[in-house]
Design brief:
- By secondary structure, the protein is mainly α.
- It has helices spanning 6-27, 32-52, 59-62, 88-93.
- The termini are far apart.
């Protein structure tokens, strides 16, 4: 079982303390049995709260592995290749290129 984080300890402790005070003030009990029942209920509530605090994600969970080996190799374009700009007029007046028929 993993160790509790600081957030889990803080939330659980605050829940136990404040729920105990609230239940004692609301119930106005004076008997030892009533105080023991309230303390046990507050402790159970504090444990429940501390267990429901989300765990921080580890590096393995935060960044899932990508399938690098399955990706096809990318074709690299040499730097010496120039891009030429073509105007719209040149494109519209260009003749379609006919393919040669092979015998």
């Amino acid at each position: 079982m993993p160790r509790p984080t600081a957030a889990q300890l803080a939330y659980g402790s605050f829940t136990v303390i404040f729920s105990t005070l609230a239940m004692l003030l609301l119930s106005q009990t004076n008997s030892g049995l009533g105080i023991a029942v309230i303390a046990c209920a507050a402790l159970a509530l504090g444990v429940l709260v501390s267990l429901t605090v989300p765990q921080p994600k580890t590096r393995a969970q935060a960044a899932p592995q990508t399938a690098v080996a399955a990706a096809p190799p990318q074709r690299r374009v040499p730097v010496s290749v120039r891009r030429e700009t073509v105007s719209a007029a040149a494109v519209s007046s260009a003749q379609p290129v006919r393919e040669r028929s092979t015998p």
